[in-house]
Every structure is written in C-alpha cells, then in structure tokens.
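Please produce the structure of this protein holding zinc ion.
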Amino acid sequence: MLKFSKQLFMNIKYKLIQLRVNLRKKSKYIMEHIIKVHIDRWRKISKNEICIFCSSKNDLTKEHVLPKWTFGNNPNDFFITNINLQSQKYIKTTIPCCANCNNNYLSYLEKYITELFYDNLRKTIYNFTNDNFENIIRWLEIIEYKFQVLEVRRKFNKHKSNNFIKYISNYPISVFSWNGSPNKVITQIRNSIKNITIKSKEKKLNSLIIFKSNNKTFFFSHNLNEYIFLDLPKFNIALFYFYDKEFVNNIDAYNYSMEIIANIYKK
Ligand SMILES: [Zn+2]
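Below is the modeled complex.
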C-alpha cells in the first residue's frame, strides 16, 4: 500500500468536480442511449457502446461495478439476482467506461478510498472528516449508478425455477424489478445520475454509517435506490448507506441500519 499522500487528498476534489461536470453535460445523451439500446421495446440489437460517465465511444474499458479490491479479487465470489435467481460473478460484473474516466477519475477515487481506510485501520476511533464522509458517499453513489446501468443491460433470460419464456427473455432485469414499468426504471437511473452530480452531500452525512467489523469474509448486500451494505475485511470496516433517506441524527440512521442488517443475516 502506498504511503498516505497529501496530494491525493488535495486533488480528489477537482477530480470529482470534473467527473460531475462531464456527467451533467452528457446525461441527456447517455439516457437517450440507454433507452434506445436497452429499454425501448422496438429496439434493434446493437453493439453500440458508450462510456456511461462521459458518453465517449473511444477507448472503452470494462469497469467493475464493485471494485476488485472490495471482494479481494476472488474469481468465485458472486451474487444472486432475486428477479430471475441467476447468479453472477463479481469479477464478470462490468459496465462500459472510457479509459480516461476509468483511470483519471474512478481509479483515483478508489485510491483515495483505500488510502483513507488504510489510514484508519489501526485507529480505535475513526478519524473521518466531513469531506471524507462526502467522498465516501460519492463513491457509494457511483456504485449505485453502475448497478442501475448493469441491471438495465442484463437480460432476464430465464428464471431458475421456471421454463424458458421466450418473449420476456430479452427484457432488462430492472424492468421486472419495477413491475414491468420501463418509465420507472428510466426515472431511477436519472435519479442516480442526479445524485452523483449534486454538489454538496451535507444533508446526506447522517445517512452514512461506518463501523468496525471483525467479519473475515467480504459481504455485500444492496437494494437499488434504497441502501448498500459493504463489509470489507481487508480494512476491518463496514459501511451502510441510505440512498434515499435523510436523518436528523446519526443514531436513528444507525439503529435503522442495524435492523436491516439483522434481517439480511436472517435470510
Ligand atoms: Zn468516459
């Protein structure tokens, strides 16, 4: 691990501003592309890909929805989609992103996050500033957006317990999550873009819970538009974030998150 670097922490602000500006400028075009290629019922099958952060068609890379370091690069770690009960490996869970956005902004943010967690690893009490909190929130919101795009790109295919149903197999998974409403899916993706492009995260600070964890294995759970829960054994840290809720104080958010986590582990 690299030495905690001051430069990295000074530059992150400008990197994130650039990412937000690009996404805001291109969001209309990106949405039109997603609708045309993945949601429109009358769409033609197209291999046309664009970067989902700046709409560039050049130097496209495969950006992992969950960064590889979160699941320890384990090629066998997977998640199961409730809608069709199909499993998918994290290592193969990627979305298109241009080399510039990937290397210049997203990797930079990853580096910031890992250094920040590494720096706090041995501390008994975490030493996170509001700026740190805001940037962790931005990172989690970017993950949410990547998941939204992933779900609209993945096709329903078949339900494990049912026979193959041909006329729905080509439908995006996310359309099923919203009772077959493509408009709802479009609104949700738009919202997650909006969340990323909002300048201040001040009102959302209480919605992020960070706590020490002794869990030895990586754990991840999320509900689109609701929450994300990440347990990162590499840093003995667990994160819980409410995408759509604001709290007057951190204690309410903490209690609520613990209820949800207890339910997740019961399953
Ligand atoms: Zn890009």
